[in-house]
Specification:
The complex is a heterodimer of chains A (182) and B (131). Chain A has 182 residues and is α+β, with helices and mostly antiparallel strands. Chain A has helices spanning 2-18, 74-84; strands spanning 22-35, 43-54, 59-65, 92-99, 112-121, 124-137, 140-149, 166-180. Chain B is an alpha/beta fold and 131 residues long. The chains are: A alpha+beta (182), B alpha/beta (131).
Chain lengths: 182, 131
């Protein structure tokens, strides 16, 4: 009997290990908008975020290369990389966090979850709390979220001449389509 | 003075031309869109294997450099191609690639964006298939 329980426990245990399913993407879409209404739009899109999501624990890691943000305007992109983000020094932004109470089985009932984690930009860490939407679509997990960051939080200095053109709250929109990692 | 008067027309014309050039260059400087990798001469042309070696020697140097590399396709998805197991080339536009090209070597040009520590891959952006 003991042997059977042990065996059962072992199979259960090992099955949870095998089920440590991970979903990932290499081409997540990250957008930001820092425009003030009356001025020209300051926004960029990055289509090459990498993200890994462990559906058993709810842990998420995501990474965005700063230099792959694309602007409509070359000069703006140059300033963003060289003056504000210093992408040569700090090539990426990293997010590590956890989606609370995530369970893949409940996805057809619930799609909104709480996400808490640390965002590291320019080597400065900041805690981010936000809501995420997770939807399952044709074997893909589509994670969308939006949150706001402040340039001050990451020691990004904005010269006073352009201060009124750049919003002090920057909207970040995220849409990652994850597939299962085999 | 008389010389200037005689050539008044030419002087005015010259002034207008200069003004035009000034406006045009300012416009270009302010509003030009970023250059794409496909329009830039590559900093490296060669085998993917060799590039991988050079990249790991000095990762920072390669940041934002345009390269043209030849390698074996190991994975294809709707966003790009994985070359030699760990160079991910993401396309400018999502295009359909036939799986038949998977067996052959492929020549790709793109911009290096960095090393992806999560998946242990080198990432290229704005890629175009040359051959």
């Amino acid at each position: 009997m003991v042997r059977i329980t042990l065996l059962l426990a072992f199979t259960l245990f090992s099955s949870t290990i095998c089920n440590a399913q991970k979903y990932y993407t290499r081409s997540g879409v990250t957008e930001f908008k820092a425009s003030q209404e009356t001025f020209e739009p300051i926004e960029a899109i990055n289509k090459s975020a990498t993200a890994i999501f462990n559906i058993n624990t709810g842990e998420v890691v995501a990474q965005v290369f700063i230099a792959s943000f694309e602007f409509k305007n070359a000069l703006m992109q140059e300033h963003f990389n060289e003056n504000y983000m210093e992408s040569a020094l700090y090539p990426k932004a990293v997010f590590k966090g956890k989606i609370d109470n995530f369970s893949k089985d409940s996805l057809n009932k619930i799609s909104n979850f709480d996400l808490v984690g640390t965002l590291t930009i320019r080597g400065v860490e900041k805690v981010v709390k936000t809501k995420v939407t997770v939807k399952e679509d044709n074997k893909k997990l589509i994670i969308t979220t939006r949150f706001v960051v402040k340039p001050d939080d990451f020691n990004i200095k904005i010269p006073s001449i352009v201060k009124e053109k750049i919003a002090n709250k920057i909207q970040i929109n995220i849409k990652y389509e994850l597939v299962e990692k085999k | 003075m008389s010389l200037l008067k005689k050539n008044k027309f030419i002087v005015i014309l010259l002034f207008i031309a200069l003004l035009g050039i000034g406006v045009w260059s300012t416009y270009r400087y302010l509003f030009v869109t970023p250059t794409k990798a496909s329009e830039v001469a590559p900093d490296f042309i060669g085998e993917a294997k060799e590039f991988k070696y050079l990249f790991t020697e000095d990762i920072k140097y390669w940041n934002n450099k345009v390269v043209q590399i030849k390698g074996k396709v190991s994975e294809i998805n709707e966003y790009g191609i994985l070359l030699n197991e760990n160079i991910f080339c993401q396309f400018e536009q999502n295009i359909d690639i036939t799986t038949s090209s998977a067996t052959n070597d492929i020549l790709i040009k793109g911009k290096v964006v960095g090393f992806d520590e999560l998946l242990m891959e080198i990432k290229l952006n704005q890629c175009v298939i040359i051959q």
